[in-house]
């Protein structure tokens, strides 16, 4: 088995150069992606590695602490000298396993060893929810770090980055490796120090923004020759850069990070310093937008507003003479229509301390210091009666598709990769390996409950929650939006059900809320904040009462997200159950046109709506990727024509 196809001079080159596929290659790649199936473990010969790992493990288990440390040191020298060969990888995996057993009381299961091998081989390990991916990642991460390669373990939110780094620190530290987490509130100095660690846990957003900041620092020195000349002239010092380069990445929740979040590019912005905003203009645009009717004057499509001919006429009638030029007028009304009809308070954003704060649609968390661009932020602030903030200008922009392909070694893990395997291959050249579970799952799927109005849904759920909690089960209710979680909370208050909340507004003490969520009778109402990665450990009493019961109060944009939420229960062989409760007023139904909205049972209409939304999002990503290649490369450390 060939492990780790890294170039020999990996450390000398901060990132990989990207070449867009040629017009001849494109159909070939497309065909290969269609034919791509999850790779069978047998074909990779990975199981054949296990006896070797166990032989090393048996030898290491007999060593005392000093001898184990000496063994680790010797391995480190060999890895640095020879690179990661299959036999050294087996040795390293056994060492990580033995140290984890001693430090954490958890020895990696065989399936975790297989997941680790798949990632070391540059693939996506599909491991069911709750199978222990956090622990699995230590295998390839520590192996690469021992070989001297800087490692990034990338995940979806700061809470998980900090949690995973903290949980796994004893393992790395016992091997003499440094580990750090980069989180949003860290100042640049601390960030730079954290990135200097052997293993860095961070979120995709922090990482890409730091990368963009570095490209800004490099400025015109992006070309290696320019950079070299600037270093000689003393105008560029690498100590100003945050990252050490893009060498070895393990992407946790890979489908979320690499696909779901990849629909919009990341934009680094700074204050524009331009003239003050004309508030009267915003007010007039918002007032006019109030007079426009959807489908008559404008249509909404993939988050964009298009004026109809009738809409244009209406705009000419309404606009007072001298009110902005024609194209600026149309642009203003489009922003105002987006503010009024597309973005909703307590779903897309919340208002806190007189400020409009964006809620990340994927993680359910507030995105501090982020704003919409092109005046939309100010339009929404005006609509909400907040003080308009200073407009920003775009300094740099990068898509995840481009960013991740710059890693010399890219790998990932997730519970939900199968259905997007073709896109993962087509976009990132990553193949999915399906890893079997350690123990068969005991998760029970209860039949979906369909009701008419939203209030019937909340009433039904409150009753069910009370019943379950009275039986000594722990209950998690997952809502689609912040507004929904608060609506349910009011119903539960009325029914006298004590419950904890986890959403963008109530996000303090997340760890404490999660720690209590598995107690007998505990009820937790959460948005997607308690989705991927959240690990609720159960009391023995809850386990014997049937485990955690998850109620999913409406389908999400992708069936993968629904499955991730269901995956909060019945982890590591525990019992657990899940049920979906849907209603005629669920937002997802907006995806359907006239007859589709009415025909067939509600559950199948929602499934169709979900499939349509998944397809629409996949199209958006394909469009972004195609536009990206066309635009040509401007960013990056390498500066090479790409
Ligand atoms: N080898 C092991 N032995 C004992 N316990 C383990 C082992 N591996 C993982 N666990 C435990 O299993 C639980 C689930 O682990 P973890 O949260 O990493 O799962 P996950 O696969 O990342 O789940 P998700 O897909 O939901 O993110 C944790 O409480 C962890 O401590």
TrEMBL record:
Domain SecA family profile: 28-615
Enzyme Commission code(s) on record: 7.4.2.8
Main location, first listed in the record: membrane
Entries under InterPro entries matching the protein: Helicase_ATP-bd, Helicase_C-like, P-loop_NTPase, SecA, SecA_DEAD, SecA_motor_DEAD, SecA_preprotein_X-link_dom, SecA_SF2_C
Membrane topology, record value: Peripheral membrane protein
Protein's cellular compartments: Cell membrane; Cytoplasm
UniProt domain Helicase ATP-binding: residue ranges: 114-290
Domain Helicase C-terminal: 460-614
CDD domains: DEXDc_SecA, SF2_C_secA
GO CC term, one of those recorded: cytosol
Biological processes, Gene Ontology terms: intracellular protein transmembrane transport; protein import; protein targeting; protein transport by the Sec complex
Chain residues that bind ATP: 112, 130-134, 535
MF terms in GO: ATP binding; protein-exporting ATPase activity
Pfam families membership: P-loop_SecA (PF21090), SecA_DEAD (PF07517), SecA_PP_bind (PF01043)
Enzymatic reactions: ATP + H2O + cellular proteinSide 1 = ADP + phosphate + cellular proteinSide 2
Group of enzyme by EC: translocase
This protein's UniProt keywords: ATP-binding, Cell inner membrane, Cell membrane, Cytoplasm, Membrane, Nucleotide-binding, Protein transport, Translocase, Translocation, Transport
UniProt superkingdom: Bacteria
Family to which the UniProt record says this protein belongs: Belongs to the SecA family.
PANTHER family recorded: CHLOROPLAST PROTEIN-TRANSPORTING ATPASE, SECA INNER MEMBRANE COMPONENT OF SEC PROTEIN SECRETION SYSTEM
Function, as annotated: Part of the Sec protein translocase complex. Interacts with the SecYEG preprotein conducting channel. Has a central role in coupling the hydrolysis of ATP to the transfer of proteins into and across the cell membrane, serving both as a receptor for the preprotein-SecB complex and as an ATP-driven molecular motor driving the stepwise translocation of polypeptide chains across the membrane.
Subunit organization: Monomer and homodimer. Part of the essential Sec protein translocation apparatus which comprises SecA, SecYEG and auxiliary proteins SecDF-YajC and YidC.
Annotated protein name in UniProt: Protein translocase subunit SecA
Organism the protein comes from: Billgrantia kenyensis
Gene field: secA
């Amino acid at each position: 088995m060939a492990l780790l196809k890294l170039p020999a001079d990996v450390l000398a080159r901060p990132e990989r150069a990207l070449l867009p596929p040629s017009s001849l290659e494109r159909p070939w790649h497309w065909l290969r992606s269609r034919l791509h199936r999850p790779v069978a473990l047998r074909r990779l010969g990975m199981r054949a590695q296990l006896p070797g790992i166990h032989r090393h493990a048996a030898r290491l288990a007999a060593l005392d602490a000093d001898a184990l440390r000496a063994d680790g040191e010797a391995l480190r020298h060999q890895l640095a000298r020879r690179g990661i060969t299959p036999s050294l990888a087996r040795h390293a995996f056994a060492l990580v396993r033995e140290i984890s057993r001693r430090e954490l009381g958890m020895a990696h299961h065989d399936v975790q060893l297989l997941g680790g091998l798949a990632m070391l081989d540059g693939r996506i390990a599909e491991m069911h929810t709750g199978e222990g991916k956090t622990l699995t990642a230590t295998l390839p991460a520590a192996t690469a770090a021992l070989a001297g390669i800087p490692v990034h373990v990338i995940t979806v939110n700061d809470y998980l980055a900090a949690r995973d780094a903290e949980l796994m620190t004893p393992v790395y530290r016992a091997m003499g490796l440094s580990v750090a987490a980069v989180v949003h509130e860290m100042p640049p100095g601390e960030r730079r120090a954290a990135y200097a660690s052997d293993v860095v846990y961070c979120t995709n957003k922090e990482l890409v923004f730091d990368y963009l900041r570095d490209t800004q620092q490099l400025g015109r020195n992006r070309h290696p020759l320019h950079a070299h000349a600037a270093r000689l002239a003393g105008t560029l010092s690498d100590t100003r850069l945050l990252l050490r380069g893009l060498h070895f990445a393990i992407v946790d929740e890979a489908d979320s990070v690499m696909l779901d979040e990849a629909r919009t590019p990341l934009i680094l912005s700074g204050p524009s310093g331009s003239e003050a905003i004309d508030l009267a203009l915003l007010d007039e645009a918002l007032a006019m937008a109030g007079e426009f009717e959807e489908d008559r004057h404008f249509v909404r499509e993939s988050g964009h507003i298009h004026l109809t001919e009738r809409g244009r006429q209406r705009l000419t009638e309404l606009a007072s003479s001298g009110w902005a030029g024609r194209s600026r007028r149309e642009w203003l009304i489009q922003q105002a229509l987006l503010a009024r009809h597309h973005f909703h308070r307590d779903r897309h954003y919340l208002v806190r301390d007189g400020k409009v704060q964006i809620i990340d649609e994927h993680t359910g968390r507030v995105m501090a210091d982020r704003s919409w661009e092109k005046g939309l932020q100010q339009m929404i602030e005006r609509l909400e009666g907040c003080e308009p903030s200073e407009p920003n200008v775009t300094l740099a922009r990068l898509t995840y598709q481009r960013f991740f392909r710059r890693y010399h070694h890219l790998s990932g893990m997730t519970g939900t990769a199968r259905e997007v395997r073709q896109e993962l291959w087509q976009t990132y050249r990553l193949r999915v390996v399906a890893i079997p579970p350690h123990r068969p799952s005991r998760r029970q799927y209860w039949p979906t409950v369909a009701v008419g109005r939203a209030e019937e849904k909340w009433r039904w759920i409150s009753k069910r929650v009370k019943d379950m909690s009275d039986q000594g089960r722990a209950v998690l209710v997952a809502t689609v939006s912040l507004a929904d979680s608060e609506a349910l909370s009011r119903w539960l208050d009325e029914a006298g059900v004590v419950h904890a909340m986890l959403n963008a507004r109530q996000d303090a003490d997340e760890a404490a809320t999660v720690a209590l969520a598995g107690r007998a009778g505990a009820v937790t109402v959460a948005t997607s904040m308690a989705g991927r990665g959240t690990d609720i450990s159960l009391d023995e009493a809850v386990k014997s009462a049937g485990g955690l019961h998850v109620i999913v109060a409406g389908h999400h944009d992708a069936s993968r997200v629904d499955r991730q939420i269901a995956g909060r229960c019945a982890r590591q062989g525990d019992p657990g159950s899940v049920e979906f409760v849907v209603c005629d007023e669920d937002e997802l139904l907006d995806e359907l046109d006239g007859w589709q909205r009415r025909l067939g049972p509600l559950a199948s209409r929602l499934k169709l709506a979900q499939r349509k939304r998944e397809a629409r999002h996949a199209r958006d990503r394909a469009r972004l990727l195609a536009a990206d290649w066309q635009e040509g490369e401007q960013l990056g450390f390498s500066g090479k024509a790409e």
